[in-house]
């Protein structure tokens, strides 16, 4: 686990993203990456459209709220705004989480069937409580050991209905990068090794934080 303090969080993240993409394509011919939502998704605006071979890049999501893809709460919408609309990625390479389907359990099963056995990189935003994806402290989903995608209907943060990758999927990723910005994230960055926190349970990760989030 490494901690990088970046004066320009977006540029440092974009370099990390492109480096992983190049390594994955050299090793396996494609790059499978899971994106985050919230403020972390804004970092995608810093990715150089020419730095990645988008024809061999496949986008997945770490979690999604049960809303339409154009809804303000949609993680897909954030990625579409900050990344997808700017880059020449084939539509079939964009694997949106179908959390807007009425049957969340069926949607989870369908997404798990499509998800590769191991993502090359998963980008994790982290909440002030240490949650990642839609995996919250002390939630029963932290005990999941077989399903890689699960429905959640009691999220402590609204909206309550969501789809999320589970710890088996997060831990299976070949690379994990956690980004954090702002002084309100400094306490959780300081506790990043605390096994009570979902972010610590994710497995070894590269942390990229701005100076105000550096404890």
List the helices and strands and how they pair.
Blueprint: E1 2-5, H1 9-28, E2 31-35, E3 57-61, E4 63-65, H2 75-82, H3 104-114, E5 121-125, E6 149-152, E7 162-165, H4 167-172, E8 176-180, H5 186-190, H6 198-201, E9 206-209
Parallel strand pairs: 1-9, 2-3, 2-5, 5-8, 8-9
Antiparallel strand pairs: 4-7, 6-7
How would you explain this protein's 3D organization?
The mean pLDDT is 96. The protein is α/β, with parallel strands linked by helices and 215 residues long. The chain has a single domain, classed as 3-Layer(aba) Sandwich (Rossmann fold). It has a six-stranded parallel β-sheet. 25% of the residues lie in helices and 18% in strands.
Percent strand equals 15-25%
CATH architecture classification name: 3-Layer(aba) Sandwich
In CATH's first tier, which class applies?
Alpha Beta
Please give the count of helices.
6
Strand order of the largest sheet: 1-9-8-5-2-3
Structure class = alpha/beta
Poorly predicted spans: none
Helix % is 25-40%
State the separation between the terminal residues, measured CA to CA.
16 Å
What is the overall shape? Answer: globular
Strand elements, count: 9
* CATH fold-level topology: Rossmann fold
Radius of gyration: 16 Å
Let me know the average pLDDT. 96
Order of helices and strands: EHEEEHHEEEHEHHE
**Overall tally of domains:** 1
């Amino acid at each position: 686990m490494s901690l990088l303090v970046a004066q320009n969080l977006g540029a440092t993240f974009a370099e990390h993203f492109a480096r992983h993409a190049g390594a994955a394509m050299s090793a396996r011919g494609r790059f499978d990456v899971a994106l985050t939502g919230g403020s972390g998704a804004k970092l995608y605006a810093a990715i150089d459209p020419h730095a990645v071979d988008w024809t061999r890049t496949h986008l997945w999501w770490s979690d999604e709220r049960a809303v339409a893809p154009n809804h303000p709460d949609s993680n897909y919408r954030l990625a579409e705004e900050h990344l997808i609309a700017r880059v020449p990625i084939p539509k079939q390479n964009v694997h949106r989480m179908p959390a807007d389907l009425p049957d969340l359990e069926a949607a989870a099963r369908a997404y798990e069937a499509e998800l590769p056995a191991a993502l090359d990189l998963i980008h994790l935003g982290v909440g002030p409580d240490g949650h990642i994806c839609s995996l919250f402290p002390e939630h029963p989903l932290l005990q999941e050991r077989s399903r890689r995608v699960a429905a959640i209907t009691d999220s402590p943060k609204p909206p309550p209905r969501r789809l999320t990758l589970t710890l088996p999927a997060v831990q299976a990723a070949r690379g994990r990068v956690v980004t954090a910005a702002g002084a309100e994230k400094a306490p959780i960055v300081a506790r990043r090794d605390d096994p009570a926190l979902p972010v610590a349970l994710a497995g070894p990760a590269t942390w990229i934080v701005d100076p105000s989030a550096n404890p």
